Amino acid sequence: MAKTPKSNLYEDLKRQILTMELDPNTDLDEASLSERYGLSRTPVRDIFRRLAGEGYIDIRENRGARVIPMNHSTLRNFFLVAPMIYAAVGRLAVQNFKPAQLAELKQTQERFRAASQNADALAMVLENNRFHEIFGEMSGNVYMQPSLGRLLIDHARIGHTFFRPKNEDMRRRLRLAVEHHDGFIAALDAHDEDAVVDLVFEHWELSRENMEMFIAPQGLKADAFVGGPATQILEKSP
User: What is the pTM of this model?
Assistant: First the structure.
């Protein structure tokens, strides 16, 4: 499908939010975006409404649009519910995926693998996000997909340090993340729900410490949010 100025604006804003080119709380200037993309105000507002519905931006009455913020409350909720939603989506994906979706997942994984080998942090963020988006599409569940999409926005933003390893331990963890993605694909191929859920927990633990590194400079204690109530609830699930 040919790109249009409107679709370019939509994709560019999503990318800039996920890769932190646009920081949380950044105001979006409707006039400058209209000029830059050659659009009138109406299609720009259409894009703002679409992105707001998907959880990327916040539209405030008489104050315009801004990138969705990250604060103590949103981060606490993220850490509490993310593993539960990822596990539920994983189970549903095994039950409902289509062959074409699995093929796209494999292609996305190869791009993620190449980006990790090339130390391309921005590409890793986007391909990792797409990998997990496809799981949501595989689930075929209209209730889970919006929740997963909202989680993935903050997962990408919080987890940025994961894709910019500063030492050998972080590089090892990144290589393990690539292996986990391969494991997800193998488990889907085998229609093994339990293997997918086990990998969800392993994958979550792998990235958790790196997320805490992002949060710690802001003085937020992540320990109270991670590995506690959410994990206990999941471990009791049938």
Answer: 0.85
